[in-house]
């Protein structure tokens, strides 16, 4: 019988008692990066949106290129708001600066307000989720408060804080906290009973139960609430800044409207949409990492 030929490059001779013996040692295959697969994946996710965007821009250009159009076409937006598009971080004065700096100012307020809402919301939601009676008593109240529009809280916050900065942060906080509380409470209520039994067997204290059982088990629900909350936070700060002033992106839109700079408003809307999308993706990414690949949506 003829044996198939073997590759001697992977044969290692080991000395044994009596005579040498041959032991086959398979060399580990080198990991190769599949650039073709990566490129195909990028193309699937990038090319379709670019095609749709190009079509929308062409349609927009055709519809509003006629004399007397109510809105400027993309070519006019590019010509009149060129500085805002290509240089988002210029500074020519206290109120004459790029949209990048204005967005950063708004993001600072969002970070404070949303951060407080996340910490407080998860804590309150965890406590409520442990008690069926607290859930029944407080859930209707939370459901009512979460339907209050963000700007409706602004007069109350201005009367309480007497300053536009803390007032805007409070509006963000009070807007974002409700979905965090509700989703966290629901997630805690849905923790399997087996997990609770294990905690009793291991005699975990409340802090250990919270960190090792409750948070990991309810993480998908928690991050669902956080994603909703961060979106509402970004909406709230833009609306609040329109009334409180300052150098944020919201006040820029209001000031541009009063100055009849429609092209600047369109550019600002693009900034707002892109930043909101990035914030949502960041929270989703953190949720995916925390839940070890389990979707947070």
TrEMBL record:
GO terms for biological process: alkanesulfonate transmembrane transport; monoatomic ion transport. Gene3D superfamilies: MetI-like. Its main location: membrane. Keywords: Cell inner membrane, Cell membrane, Ion transport, Membrane, Transmembrane, Transmembrane helix, Transport. One of its GO terms (molecular function) is nitrate transmembrane transporter activity. The chain crosses the membrane at residues 46-64, 110-132, 144-162, 168-188, 209-228, 234-254, 266-290. One of its GO terms (cellular component) is plasma membrane. The keyword Transcription does not apply. PROSITE patterns: ABC_TM1 (PS50928). Residues 103-283 form the ABC transmembrane type-1 domain. It is found in: Cell inner membrane; Cell membrane. The keyword Membrane applies. It comes from the Bacteria. Probably part of an ABC transporter complex. Probably responsible for the translocation of the substrate across the membrane. This is Bicarbonate transport system permease protein CmpB. The lineage of its organism: Bacteria, Pseudomonadati, Pseudomonadota, Alphaproteobacteria, Hyphomicrobiales. The gene is cmpB.
């Amino acid at each position: 019988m003829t044996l198939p030929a073997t590759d001697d490059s992977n044969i290692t001779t080991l000395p044994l008692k009596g005579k040498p013996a041959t032991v086959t040692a398979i060399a580990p295959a080198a990991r190769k990066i599949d650039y073709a697969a990566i490129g195909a994946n990028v193309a699937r996710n990038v090319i379709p949106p670019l095609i749709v965007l190009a079509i929308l821009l062409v349609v927009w250009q055709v519809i509003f290129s006629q004399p007397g159009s109510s809105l400027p076409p993309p070519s006019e937006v590019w010509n009149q708001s060129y500085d805002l598009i290509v240089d988002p971080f210029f500074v020519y004065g206290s109120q004459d600066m790029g949209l990048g700096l204005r967005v950063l100012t708004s993001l600072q307020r969002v970070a404070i307000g949303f951060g407080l809402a996340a910490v407080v919301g998860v804590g309150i939601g965890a406590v409520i989720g442990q008690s069926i009676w607290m859930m029944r008593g407080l859930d209707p109240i939370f459901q009512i408060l979460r339907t209050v529009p963000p700007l409706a809280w602004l007069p109350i916050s201005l009367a309480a804080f007497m300053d536009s900065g803390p007032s805007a942060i409070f509006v963000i906080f009070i807007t974002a906290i409700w979905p965090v509380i509700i989703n966290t409470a629901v997630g805690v209520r849905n923790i399997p009973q087996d997990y609770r039994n294990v905690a009793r067997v291991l005699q975990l204290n409340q802090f250990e139960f919270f960190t090792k059982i409750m948070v990991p088990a309810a993480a998908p629900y928690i991050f669902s609430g956080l994603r909703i909350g961060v979106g509402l936070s970004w909406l709230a700060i833009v609306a609040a800044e329109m009334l409180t002033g300052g150098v944020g992106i919201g006040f820029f839109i209001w000031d541009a409207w009063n100055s009849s700079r429609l092209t600047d408003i369109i550019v600002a809307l693009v900034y707002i949409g892109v930043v909101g999308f990035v914030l949502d993706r960041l929270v989703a990414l953190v949720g995916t990492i925390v839940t070890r690949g389990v979707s947070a949506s």
